[in-house]
Specification:
By secondary structure, this protein is α/β, with parallel strands linked by helices. It folds into two domains: 200 residues, TIM Barrel, CATH 3.20.20.10; 83 residues, Beta Barrel (Lyase, Ornithine Decarboxylase, Chain A, domain 1). The protein is 25% helix and 23% strand. The protein contains nine helices and 16 strands. Helix 7 links the parallel strand 9 and strand 10. The longest helix has 17 residues. It is elongated. Pathway: Amino-acid biosynthesis; D-alanine biosynthesis; D-alanine from L-alanine: step 1/1. It comes from Campylobacter estrildidarum. It holds the Pfam family Ala_racemase_C.
Length: 329
């Protein structure tokens, strides 16, 4: 059976690195959405907890319930109000017209649209949002925004940051002791100076991406299903996209695009972590390559596969099927 190996020491070192940069673990919101970016939220939760992390962000209520026994504060980022919100969780308001649909007393964070133009309340509607929140008798505990281009060297980051400073100023005139957060992984490692009055939402960085001082946490392994000698002139896989020019011992391994691998079409040269080339097309449940023994590391750095498929490491990681076992090493 294929397996995902999680390097506990690497994860701990990454969190310690981030805590040192931020100054205190209590100021970190670890983003565990989408099964902790494919790494396995439940397997990592106790490790994060042991290092002082007590605030996480997740995608939806299902993910929140999975982690409720680990963390005191859980922020749900993508929620459609239904009027029966759980008083233990914190819910994001992404749309001003939905405010009245939340259950009375619900703990909320208000998202501010400072330029991402995806979710949140426009700057000019903040005061109106406050009135609606108070009228709906919701418990506003924080405001936040999301930078659209913190990982790109243009001016948009600074424009958004200034708008959020303005939003904080407006909020502080009306409310006391709220939580503010705008810096994601990219913003944190981009800047030497970081705001002292904010929390920090850390996603991909905790898993080893975004800074040279971080260590990759996840390695994906496949196991041998069968082996054979591919004779000169014979091909393997659908469409005969690979044929060997000499006798070659090959093996087929138990990972395919149904498990979350991208569907390689056999063209261009996609390599495993040991520099062995995948031979032919990736199938639904398997791939073939030169025989690498009973177990082979498919990748231990998602950026390599992301570069090949012209995407980002996030997509490579979150596509990994949740049924693949995750084990600590």
């Amino acid at each position: 059976m294929s397996v995902i190996k999680i390097n506990q020491k690497a994860y701990e070192n990454n969190l310690k690195n981030i805590i040192k940069k931020v100054g205190n673990s209590s100021k970190i919101i670890s983003v565990f959405k989408d099964n902790a970016y494919g790494h396995g939220a439940k397997i990592l939760a106790p490790i994060a907890k042991s290092l002082g992390i007590n605030f996480v962000a997740v995608k939806n209520e299902k993910e929140a319930y999975n982690l409720e026994n680990f963390f005191e504060n859980i922020l749900i980022l993508s929620h459609r109000p239904h009027g029966n919100e759980n008083p233990k969780f914190i819910y994001t308001i992404n749309e001003i017209s939905k405010i009245q649909e939340y259950k009375i007393g619900t703990k909320i964070h208000l998202k501010i649209d400072t330029g991402m133009h995806r979710n949140g309340v426009y700057m000019e509607n903040i005061e109106d949002a406050f009135l609606k929140i108070d009228k709906a008798k919701l418990n506003l505990e924080g405001i936040f925004t999301h930078f659209s281009s913190a990982d790109e060297m243009d001016a948009s980051f600074f424009v958004q940051r200034e708008k959020f400073f303005q939003a904080k100023s407006l909020t502080q005139k009306r409310y006391e002791n709220l939580i503010y957060h705008s810096y994601n992984s990219s913003a944190l490692f981009r800047n030497q100076e970081i705001p002292q009055d904010e929390f920090f939402r850390i996603g991909i960085a905790q898993f080893g991406y975004g800074d040279k001082n971080l260590e990759k946490v996840l390695s994906l392994y496949a196991h041998k299903l069968s082996e054979r000698i591919l004779k000169s002139g014979q091909s393997v896989g659908y469409g005969r996209s690979f044929s060997t020019e000499k006798n070659l011992k090959i093996a087929t391994y138990d990972l395919g695009y149904a498990d979350g691998l991208f569907r390689y079409n056999g063209q261009g040269g996609l390599f495993l972590a040991n520099n062995k080339k995948i031979l032919g097309k990736i199938s639904m449940d398997s791939f073939s390559c030169e025989d690498c023994g009973d177990e082979v590391c498919v990748f231990n750095d998602a950026e390599i596969w992301a570069d090949f498929f012209n995407t980002i490491s996030y997509e490579i990681l979150v596509k990994l099927h949740p049924d693949i076992p995750r084990v600590l090493i």
